[in-house]
Write a sequence for this structure.
């Protein structure tokens, strides 16, 4: 009897229901209708189940089980129905809100053309697309409402919401019709207003065209002052401002015509005015610019002028006027002005070489004296400080010699700048000093970059010396070249001294070596004091220029290097004597032999070198008193000594001799 309800009791029915709702896309409503009908049938069957069943001596009480079954099925049924009640509320509110938004937007009352056209397009979109989509969604809502009315009791709020939804399409149709009619009237008014605006604009264009034609063609005086040109520029700027406003107005009219789908208007008179006024604007601006600049270039102090910039500006204006002469063929008056300007520019161009010569950087009193001698009268740039004054004293007649003197001054100036730049480049160049071992002594680190810079600057200095204009710099260039070569020699010698010093310093730090080589030891200490003094000076100020200015530095380093070479020769002679006295020392290098000789009180120093001096001996064995007790081979064979040997280092030479 209860086998039919096992899926409910075992929660299988609940899992099936949850599985349906967990799908990515909700199944059709018919599936849920069947599911709810299944739950209804189950409930009807449970209602017919008996609560008490007699079993001979017993009465079976099924009432609690029946109630549990009823609750489980009711919960599943209510879960499905409540889901669709909530879904219906959410969807109905969303659709109603969208209808509300469309109604509010359609009820707007725009006045400008873009807004009117935009609202008309919106109404069309609502009628042809959005209303169709929402009607389809309302049909789905209707299916859900029928389903809910069949299986559930809806409260008054849900009923009102459903009713509101089903009434919205007809209400919106009325709103759209009313808004469309109102917009049609507004659009017609806008079209009428636009036509009137276009007519007024065309009349305005004709008026302005007459003004501009008059400005272009009226008679102009032969000579115009700077104030007259300023007035012309102001007038033409005002006319060009009118043309800009007209162009903006034409674009706005065309834009509104495009929005209202009216045939585009053309304004040929506007295009004609823009085409004809363009050259006129350029003409008067060029004329005013040249006259303004001419006042500065010709009458102003030439020391403040840049001749290259002026030449470029003049060439640019001359080219502009040449182009304008071709464009102004239909405007005789304007063309005559352009010809006058071109003549002015051509006249000024004649003086450009003079201006370039007197503006040359590097001109000094010596050059002005030469110019005065060539001209036959004194030329003082503080008195004759403008191009006009130079022309008045007829400097043009020595133009060729003026250019030669000026070019020479420029070349001399360039050489001086090169020299100054090289000197400034050394301002922050410094030696890198690093500590020597664990002492407070410093030595030079890598100087590759300094030497590379030196080589480069020496080549530049030698190239400068080959210039025919170098004499103007006096001894500065030669002194700088000598300084560079001196620094190169100093650094080369310095590195030689440092390398030799670093080799000898550990050797003559040994008291045993000093005892055996007293003369060389004294000489090395003298060199050591000098070298340490130089390094102390360099560490205090590591700038290369300052460090190499140490008094008599090059001679001091050369003498130190000569002394170190003599010391090294004495050291080599000393080592040769030791090898002759004990021939097996010939098997050792100088460094290995020095290691032994520098610590004669430590017999263990000889251990690493035994295998080189004696073929079969690898090492010696010492006892606690540091006496030799045995000899060990490389194969670890041990030969005990017949008697202990005390390596008395005071008689080391005698002991070595007795072993040969």
């Amino acid at each position: 009897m209860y086998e039919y309800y096992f899926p409910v009791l075992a929660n299988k029915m609940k899992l099936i229901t949850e599985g349906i709702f967990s799908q990515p896309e909700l199944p059709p409503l018919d599936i849920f209708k069947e599911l709810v009908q299944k739950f209804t049938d189950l409930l009807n069957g449970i209602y017919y189940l008996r609560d008490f069943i007699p079993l001979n001596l017993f009465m079976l009480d099924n009432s609690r089980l029946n109630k549990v079954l009823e609750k489980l099925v009711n919960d599943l049924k209510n879960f499905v129905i409540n889901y669709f009640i909530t879904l219906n509320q959410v969807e109905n509110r969303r659709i109603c809100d969208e209808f509300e938004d469309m109604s509010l937007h359609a009820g707007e009352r725009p006045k400008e053309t873009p807004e009117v056209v935009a609202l008309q397009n919106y109404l069309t979109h609502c009628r042809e697309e959005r209303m169709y989509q929402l009607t389809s969604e309302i049909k789905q809502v209707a299916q859900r409402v029928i389903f809910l009315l069949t299986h559930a009791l809806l409260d008054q709020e849900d009923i009102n919401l459903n009713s509101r939804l089903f009434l919205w399409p007809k209400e919106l149709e009325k709103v759209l019709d009313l808004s469309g009619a109102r917009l049609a009237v507004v659009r017609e008014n806008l079209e009428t207003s636009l036509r009137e605006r276009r007519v007024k604009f065309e009349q305005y264009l004709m008026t302005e065209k007459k003004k501009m034609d008059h400005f272009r063609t009226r008679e102009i005086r032969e000579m115009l002052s700077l104030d007259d040109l300023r007035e012309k520029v102001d007038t033409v700027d005002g006319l060009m401002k009118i043309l800009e406003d007209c162009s903006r107005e034409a674009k706005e009219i065309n834009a509104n015509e495009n929005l209202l789908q009216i045939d585009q208007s053309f304004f040929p008179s506007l295009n004609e005015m823009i085409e004809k006024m363009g050259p006129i604007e350029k003409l008067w601006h060029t004329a005013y610019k040249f006259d303004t600049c001419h006042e500065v270039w010709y009458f102003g102090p030439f020391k403040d002028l840049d001749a290259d910039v002026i030449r470029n500006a003049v060439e640019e204006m001359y080219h502009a006027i040449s182009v304008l002469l071709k464009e102004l063929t239909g405007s005789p008056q304007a063309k005559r002005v352009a010809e006058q300007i071109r003549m002015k520019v051509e006249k000024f161009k004649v003086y450009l070489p003079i201006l370039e010569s007197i503006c040359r950087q590097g001109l000094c009193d010596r050059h002005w004296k030469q110019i005065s001698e060539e001209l036959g009268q004194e030329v003082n740039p503080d008195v004759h400080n403008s191009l006009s004054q130079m022309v008045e004293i007829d400097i043009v007649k020595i133009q060729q010699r003026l250019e030669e003197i000026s070019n020479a001054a420029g070349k001399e100036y360039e050489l001086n700048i090169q020299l100054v730049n090289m000197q400034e480049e050394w301002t922050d160049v410094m030696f890198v000093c690093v500590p020597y071992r664990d002492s407070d002594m410093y030595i030079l680190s890598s100087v590759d970059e300094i030497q590379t810079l030196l080589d480069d600057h020496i080549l530049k200095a030698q190239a400068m010396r080959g210039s025919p204009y170098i004499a103007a710099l006096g001894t500065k260039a030669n002194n700088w070249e000598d300084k560079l070569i001196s620094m190169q020699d100093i650094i080369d010698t310095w590195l030689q001294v440092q390398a030799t010093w670093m080799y000898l310093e550990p050797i003559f730090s040994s008291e045993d070596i000093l005892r055996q080589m007293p003369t060389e030891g004294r000489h090395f200490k003298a060199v050591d004091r000098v070298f340490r003094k130089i390094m102390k000076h360099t560490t205090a100020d590591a700038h290369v220029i300052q460090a190499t200015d140490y008094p008599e530095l090059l001679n001091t380093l050369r003498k130190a290097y000569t002394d170190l070479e003599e010391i090294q020769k004495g050291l080599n002679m000393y080592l040769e004597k030791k090898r002759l006295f004990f021939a097996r020392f010939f098997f050792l290098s100088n460094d290995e032999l020095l290691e032994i000789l520098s610590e004669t009180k430590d017999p263990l120093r000889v251990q690493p070198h035994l295998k080189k001096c004696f073929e079969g001996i690898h090492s010696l064995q010492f006892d606690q008193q540091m006496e030799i007790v045995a000899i060990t081979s490389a194969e670890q064979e041990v030969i005990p000594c017949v008697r202990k040997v005390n390596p008395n280092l005071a008689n080391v030479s005698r002991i070595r001799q007795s072993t040969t």
Q: What stands out?
A: Residues 221-359 form one domain. The longest strand covers residues 638-645. The CA atoms of residues 362 and 413 lie 5 Å apart. Confidence is low (pLDDT under 50) at residues 649-660.
